[in-house]
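Training component of the fellowship. As part of building independent skills, the fellow (R.M.) carried out the full modelling exercise for a liganded target. The chosen ligand was S-adenosylmethionine. The inputs are recorded below so that the supervisory panel can assess the work.
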Amino acid sequence: MIALETLAGGARGGTLYGIGVGPGDVRYLTLRAAGLVRSVDTIAFFAKRGQPGNARRIVAPLLAPDQAELRLEYPVTEEIPAEHPDYQEKIGAFYRTTAAALADVLNSGKSVGLLAEGDPFFYGSFMHMWRRLASAFPVEVVPGVTGMSGCWTRANLPITWGNDTLAVLPGTLGEQQLVDRLRLTDAAVIMKVGRNLRKVRRAVEQAGLLSRAVYVERGTMDDERILPLAECGEPRGAYFAMVLIPGEGRRL
Ligand SMILES: C[S@@+](CC[C@H](N)C(=O)[O-])C[C@H]1O[C@@H](n2cnc3c(N)ncnc32)[C@H](O)[C@@H]1O
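Fellow's submitted model of the complex:
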């Protein structure tokens, strides 16, 4: 049983749409996502302080000049590790106020399209709004092409063959945890590489997988970068970066 911190909604509240906008290239939006971006009353999006917001940037070509927008600016992102109590307190308070702000718009009868980079239910901030609002308002979640499928497609890397297992690992795990998980899987996607790049590289090397690992930064976006992890010497990666290790299963 999941305990939901819900906010009260009127019987006729507007609908909240969680719109998956795909990994970066606007052409990877689904028809449903593109239709909603053009038709909802308000477009809401998360953004880092001082940045335009990646999901909003993806759909920018579809937005009307007079589109109502609600910018939801994170108080912190990568400056403090997510396990730190300060991070949890600040982000927890931010999600509570943000859910209340969305509830206000929905209570006025307006629809809100909350943009989510990739897929909304896959490591998405949207989920923190969904758990607070889904029992009080009508909600529709529109799936999106995930960052990882965009990245393995652009890197030309079929990821799983035959009976290959695939592990999706956050780069925020400890080094030994990463090594242990990597040793148990055939194929892997390591997300949230950013400032964990050095640790991730060491873990991949210890698991004996460096020769197969590929680093993809901003996959499908204009400034995409793809290179073998072994050639990636920088101390930290971009926020939108992942490491892909393709399986070597049955080829017929
Ligand atoms: C908070 S998660 C969001 C995942 C997203 N909901 C999805 O479906 O892919 C952010 C992480 O996703 C990964 N990511 C998402 N899109 C990416 C892209 N286009 N290129 C590289 N990494 C990406 C990065 O590892 C980034 O740190």
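The panel noted the following from the submitted structure. The two ends are 44 Å apart (CA to CA). The pocket of S-adenosylmethionine is lined by residues 23-24, 116-119, 122-124, 146-148, 150-151, 191-194, 216, 218-220, 239-242 (CB under 6 Å).
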